[in-house]
Amino acid sequence: SNAEYMGTACNVREETLMKRRQPPKKEEVEEPMEPEVSGSEEDEDDDDDRIDLTLGRDEQDGEEEEDDGEGDDDEFNEIEVDFDFMDPKESDFHSLKTFLTGLLDGLPYNVSELADTIISQVSVGTMIKVPGDEYSLFGFLTALNLHRHKNLESVQQIAHYLLEKCKQTDPAQAAGLQQLLQDETKPLGLILNERMVNLPPKLVPALHQALIDDIHWAIDNEDVEVRDTFKFENFLLVTRVFKEESANQKKKKNKSADEGCSFYKFEEELYHQESLFSFTFRCPHGTTAASGTTSSTSQVATDAPTHRMVMVVPAAKLPAIVAQMAALVD
Fold first, then answer.
1. DSSP state, 3?
2. What span, in angstroms and rounded, lies between the C-alpha atoms of 110 and 156?
């Protein structure tokens, strides 16, 4: 279950399959959540670059505290888990479908086609797994060119859904969104960023850096006819947020509709700060916080209604955003 990975030690390794990526650098960090974090020592004989997070009770003078036989509600056993960054594979199909099914908030769409498209794009995209289990998918990050895949039914369904929601909730932004969806001279990438609840935040900067590295690799090494499709001008993100609403706000739509939102994933707030524009709408079909597959390191009001925020972010801002992610988790 997701809860098994709360307060675990994790190592991040990146396995290069059909491409060359720069693995995340290893460094000692403290997880900004209770219980306290202590970085594990670097093994000089380990050829893999890893991020080590060790969560557990402090040890004094290198000796473990003795169990006095009394129950301690704050004490738990340390569990060490390795996470690998992998290229997408056919074995990820069903797990990807599970992550993606709720993308349109309960409305049916061709999720199988979208999952197949992610798997077929080996050059750009990272799957989070544990070693030795190719079916264990704990999260993923990828970017799909919406213009390149404009003839796919799933892409058309996503574009139509978002455009209609924009027209309903923020008509002033609808023309701009439609222009971005149609203007193939400015490649638009749909970032799909999903992970299981309570995966260590330390994974996030490395995961997004892998996206940058993948895009650079694809531009230099992909088939000539598709290289330009990875030269993204902007990214489109569809995120889930909590938002408190007063009675007056429910009756009145205004340009500051994004205000008062709490983000499930901390990195999406950083994307929002650099966005060209964004709009927010309430999730239909009784969507609640419990139905989300992701979690932020920040606290959000669990009784607040769940919303979607759609944002457009310049691709040139991505390196700075990733640097901010790294600063937050260090």
1. G
2. 10
Interior/surface letters 142-159, b for 16+ CB within 10 angstroms, e for the rest: bbbbbbbbeebebbebbb
Give pLDDT tens digits for 45-70.
443 444 454 443 344 444 444 455 55
Q: Read off the pLDDT of residues 83-124 as tens digits, 9 standing for 90 and up.
A: 999 999 999 999 999 999 999 998 999 999 999 999 999 999
Instruction: Compute φ and ψ for 117, nearest 5 degrees.
Output: -65, -40
Q: pLDDT averaged over the chain?
A: 78
**Cα separation, 136 vs 120, whole angstroms:** 19
**Strand runs labelled E in the chain:** 9-14, 37-38, 52-55, 80-86, 126-129, 139-145, 188-195, 234-243, 261-263, 277-282, 306-314
Its pTM stands at 0.75
Do 227 and 218 form a contact (C-beta atoms < 8 A)?
A: yes
Q: What is the DSSP letter of 285?
A: T
- DSSP-derived pairing of the beta strands 234-243 and 188-195: parallel
User: Comparing C-alpha atoms, which of 265, 90, 108, 95 is closest to residue 191?
Assistant: 265
> What crossing angle do the helices spanning 318-329 and 266-273 adopt, rounded to 10°?
140
**Which residues fall within 8 angstroms of residue 16, CB to CB, at 6 or more apart?**
none
d(CA 23, CA 210): 8
Q: Tokens at residue 68, please?
A: 């006095």
Residue the block writes with tokens 């008062």:
260
Q: How far apart are CA 189 and CA 81, in angstroms?
A: 32
Question: Phi and psi (nearest 5°) for 215?
Answer: -65, -45
Helix (H, G, I), strand (E, B) or coil at 168: helix
